[in-house]
Design brief:
The structure is a single chain. The chain is an alpha/beta fold. The chain has four domains: about 180 residues, P-loop containing nucleotide triphosphate hydrolases (Rossmann fold, 3-Layer(aba) Sandwich); about 80 residues, no CATH class; about 190 residues, P-loop containing nucleotide triphosphate hydrolases (Rossmann fold), CATH 3.40.50.300; about 140 residues. Helices cover about 50% and strands about 15% of the residues. The protein has a seven-stranded parallel β-sheet with strand order 13-14-12-15-16-11-19, sandwiched between helices. Strands 3-2-6-7-1-8 form a six-stranded parallel β-sheet, with helices on both faces. It has a two-stranded parallel sheet with strand order 4-5. The chain is globular and about 70 Å long. It starts with 19 loop residues before the first helix and ends in a 16-residue tail after the last strand. Bound molecules: adenosine-5'-triphosphate.
């Protein structure tokens, strides 16, 4: 057992210092709410706080820390930051989950704590059809179940009904029969009942949140168990918390000794001293008497980019808090450029030139570059893919939207590690992850050495089988199941409780095999073919391309934002929402941001009328649009070598 240290002995790990407000938040022993702009080190603050609490023993065994994020990437990122720094026995008391995973796990473990009228059957299915967009169909189905005609429900606004009545505005009553006789509530309860009594029941994550809140409210034993387990709770990206999720947090931890730390960006992304605590962050601060901490440093971006961020913020909100570089540095290598092209072909050609230059001349790893677009990637990628194919050697561009979730799954990581080791590449990291997994899945009483020998045999079996396996999903699945048997599928599921219920685990396995087989290319040997396919899935040499929404929480050396034009931003009637998107895109960059405008795209003329506001903001920050066809494009962009 590692010795704990005193709070006075503790200092930030892996970074030289924290800004004062961050240091206070890290060491605080009361509820807190940290607000900060992009790149301020919010995630880093949580990693430091975990380090502080575990290393000093303020969070003493067997108690744990629960960190809840919105996206799997963010949860994994935080988990990795903690695992890298702390000894294993301390890091293992840090649970970094998404809200969905936390809720689903609670429901699955304590399903019987729900009254029978609200209890889904054991093998319930997750429905992706039950969602706001289908509110009209849902409402019509409910009406027909109650023997009503379309005329009876014509006056009910569909989406409002879904959000305010069916899902949103109220925690569930303990007895489903107690709902008022009001038509909208009758329809909502009819739908709940219909979903729950089906064999199997069908529910979505929003319904799960509601059920978990009820489960916690009705069962003091479950609530107290949760409070006893978790001495500290971290809530990341708290500004995005929905009222459903907030209700769970409140029921679970209000008036308890568990200490909560919420961190977030104010909703509108522009912080003002007066308005930093807004919306759900303000509610949390009031309900939990949480002390506010406001951070104003930016550790991510070069000073030139921070200056532009500050200027953009002031354009939108004159009271905005001006960000400062984390180290006080006032100049660096930051660049922001906006280029106008005649059409998307010229744009694609120029971007492919820049990518080639960045990877080959500036030595920027492909994964340090990101191509963003406001909406559907596929609309922007085709011309670019064609252009890049001609010059890319050793790298490619990859649409991340489809794979991001699959790649964050533990089972994908295990299978990828096994294939990596079996095909003989970058063995050490993958091998040690597999060994660690083996250590936790090996039943007590079975020798470590025997288990390790079994793993080696399993990998040998995999290597031999891959040599003769055709790229057909069923065959690959069989081979991979063979290697998973070393860990024991049931023991793996116990380790990753999201796989216990339903057929989610099997679906992921199939998805992984399908993807790998699609990417298998006949190479010199089948092993090379599988290795290339895996690298293509993991995207080791790929430049990621994604929507701004997906990029939240991520950072890159260079960000290229395609299509700063009306077709992408049709929502500027809501400038706060779109200004927010623009900010997120801009603030992902450490050193370089390039925006593009193409006069023709999707076969039609593109305009800057609705987006003029964004161009005005950039112009006020000193960034002017440049006509790329009149420039020697690449020579106009100063080199930034990757260190
Ligand atoms: N105190 C610090 N000293 C040095 N570097 C830091 C510090 N805090 C954070 N960083 C670095 O700054 C970058 C941004 O940090 P982090 O991702 O935690 O910010 P964030 O506020 O969560 O960002 P965002 O909300 O914009 O995604 C990371 O590369 C991180 O390693």
């Amino acid at each position: 057992m590692k010795r704990t240290i005193t709070p006075e002995e503790w200092s930030p790990v892996g970074v030289s210092s924290l800004e004062q407000a961050a240091e206070f938040a890290v060491r605080s022993e009361t509820n807190g709410v940290v607000v900060a702009g992009p790149g301020a080190g919010k995630t880093e603050l949580l990693a430091q706080r975990a380090d502080y609490l575990l290393r000093t023993g303020i969070c003493a065994p067997p108690r744990r820390i629960l960190a809840i994020s919105f996206k799997r990437d963010a949860a994994r990122n935080l988990e990795e930051r903690v695992a890298e720094r702390l000894p294993k026995e301390m890091a293992s008391r840090f649970d970094s989950w998404t809200f969905d995973k936390f809720s689903k796990q609670m429901l699955d473990r304590f399903r019987k704590g729900l009254p029978t009228c609200w209890r889904p059957v054991d093998n319930y299915e997750l429905s992706f059809w039950i969602k706001e967009q289908n509110a009209g169909r849902i409402l019509e189905n409910c009406a027909s179940a109650l023997g009503l005609g379309l005329g009876d429900i014509a006056h009910i606004p569909r989406r409002e009904w879904y959000n305010d009545v069916f899902i949103g505005a109220f925690p569930l009553l303990e007895d489903i029969a107690e709902y008022s006789d009001d038509l909208e509530y009758r329809l909502a309860t009819a739908f709940w009942k219909g979903c729950l009594v089906r064999q199997p029941s069908i529910i979505n994550f929003q319904m799960i949140s509601r059920l978990v809140e009820l489960q916690l409210r009705m069962n003091p034993a479950i609530r107290n168990g949760l409070r006893a387990t978790y001495a500290f709770v971290f809530l990341d990206e708290f500004q995005d918390t929905t009222n459903l999720q907030y209700d769970i947090v409140k029921t679970a931890f209000h008036d308890s000794s568990t200490i909560l730390t919420a961190v977030g960006d104010p909703k509108q992304c522009i912080m003002t001293w007066a308005g930093a605590l807004d919306g759900v962050m303000k509610t949390f601060a009031n309900d939990f008497s949480a002390k506010p901490y406001i951070l104003r440093r930016n550790y991510r971006s070069e000073p030139e980019l921070i200056t532009i961020l500050g200027s953009l913020a002031k354009q939108i909100e004159p009271d905005a808090i001006e960000p400062a570089h984390g180290t006080g540095k006032t100049s660096g290598e930051g660049q922001c450029r906006v280029f106008e092209f005649a059409d998307d072909r010229a744009e694609a050609h120029a971007i492919s030139q820049l990518l080639d230059y960045s990877v080959k001349q500036e030595n920027i790893p492909p994964r340090e570059i990101c191509i963003l677009c406001r909406k559907l990637v596929v609309n922007y990628s085709q011309e670019l893919f064609r252009s890049v194919e001609h010059r890319a050697e050793g790298y490619g561009i990859r649409d991340e939207s489809s794979l991001q979730d699959l790649l964050a799954e533990p089972i994908t990581i295990i299978l990828s590690d096994a294939i990596t080791v079996a095909t003989g590449t970058s063995e050490s990291e993958s091998w040690s992850r597999l060994q660690e997994l083996l250590a936790i899945t090996t039943p007590k009483g079975k020798g470590r050495r025997t288990a390790s020998r079994m793993l080696s045999l399993g990998i040998d079996y995999l290597a031999a089988s891959l040599l003769v396996t055709e790229p057909e999903p069923d065959k690959l699945l069989e081979v991979l199941q063979g290697v998973l048997a070393v860990f024991g599928v049931e023991r793996l599921k116990q380790q990753f409780p999201q796989y216990i219920q339903g057929d989610y685990f099997d679906k992921l396995m199939t998805q992984f095999c399908d993807n790998l087989c699609t990417r298998f290319v006949s190479e010199a040997s089948p092993l090379d073919g599988w290795r290339t396919a895996l690298q293509s899935i993991i995207g080791m040499n790929s430049i990621p391309m994604m929507t701004v929404h997906k990029s939240k929480g991520l950072e890159y050396h260079t960000v290229i934002f395609m299509g700063l034009e009306d077709a992408a931003f049709n929502n500027l009637k809501d400038p706060v929402e779109e200004g927010n998107n623009f900010f997120v895109a801009f603030s992902r960059a450490k050193k370089r941001v390039v925006f593009t405008f193409s006069r023709r795209r999707f076969g039609s003329q593109q305009r800057q009328t609705n987006v003029q506001l964004l161009y005005d903001w950039l112009a006020a920050a000193g960034v002017q649009i440049e006509p790329a066809d009149q420039l020697d494009f690449l020579n106009g962009i100063p080199s930034i070598q990757h260190e």
